[in-house]
Predict the 3D structure of the following.
Amino acid sequence: MIDDDERVLLCRRHGQTTWRPVRARVIRLRPSGSSILHVHDPLFTHCFLAPTPVVGHFAPPANKEPNESVRIFIVRRNKIHSLILRPQAAHGCESDYIWHPLSTVEAAEFDVLPRELGPLLRGYVEGWIPDGPITLVE
């Protein structure tokens, strides 16, 4: 997710240094073009309804399993709406979640995976990356 102040919500497992986009299952609603996002962490107790105008596909390094590839959905925070509340079981957050400025995510020394996430998001924010599938390869 990216907000109006060009901050990006990223997460990392406790004890790790690499930041990643928030993991979520996305269910496309046809023919509306909207999607339901279900975030894979007990910290998020609800689903979101959102448009997903840009879909990026990240292929991990060749030594990784092919099923470890992920799709990146870029959604503006002010465009998502809470959809449903679900009961929350015992909560143990195993990850850190922080809003990072986009300029930080773009910096070469910032530890983010995929590495091209910053330029992809910048292109989306500035409008020079078109809607549709985009593949990022690490």
